[in-house]
Amino acid sequence: MEINQYIQLAIAGDQTAFTHLLDRYWNEVYGFMLKRTENETDAEDITIETFAKAFDKLKTYNPEFKFNTWLIAIAKNVHIDLIRKRKALHEIHNLGDEELAYGVIDDTPSAEDVLITEQNLSNLLRQIKQLKPHYQQVIQMRYFQELSYQEIANKTNEPLNNVKIKLLRAKKLLAEIIANEGEY
């Protein structure tokens, strides 16, 4: 089957097509980012975010261009965003002591902030419970237990790529649930 057929199946929601695309292009995108960043963690994070963005915007892919070229372009943009964020943080840390003293913001949450956070967390947990159990499990392990992808793969006895796909899918489904509740 041609790549464009897999892309069309993925657009239609076929999980196997998503897995095929991830498996086929993971090493290429990861290898490219590893050369650029010279940091395995950054390369993996950028690659995951690249596939998440690509899968969310798959309908916008123009088949006149090679799919791997499109993925690499997304990866470059994700990397540039990461560099900008780090540069902004670096600039904040390099302010003079006097400037820094005036720029200090009291980030202690107010009673209202605490209440809003608790309500948001309660809503989020309720929304997560609407997902299928296997999606709930990976979300819980990744974001509440803060396990790495490899640790999740080891605990669930699943291949690493399956865990990554499940998390991408779970985040997308959760975003849809949140968006649908916001419409009411």
UniProtKB/TrEMBL annotation:
Keywords: Sigma factor, Transcription, Transcription regulation. Pfam families: Sigma70_r2, Sigma70_r4_2. GO terms for biological process: DNA-templated transcription initiation. One of its GO terms (molecular function) is sigma factor activity. Residues 123-174 form the RNA polymerase sigma factor 70 region 4 type domain. It comes from the Bacteria. Residues 22-87 form the RNA polymerase sigma-70 region domain. Belongs to the sigma-70 factor family. ECF subfamily. This is RNA polymerase subunit sigma-70. It comes from Flavobacterium aurantiibacter.
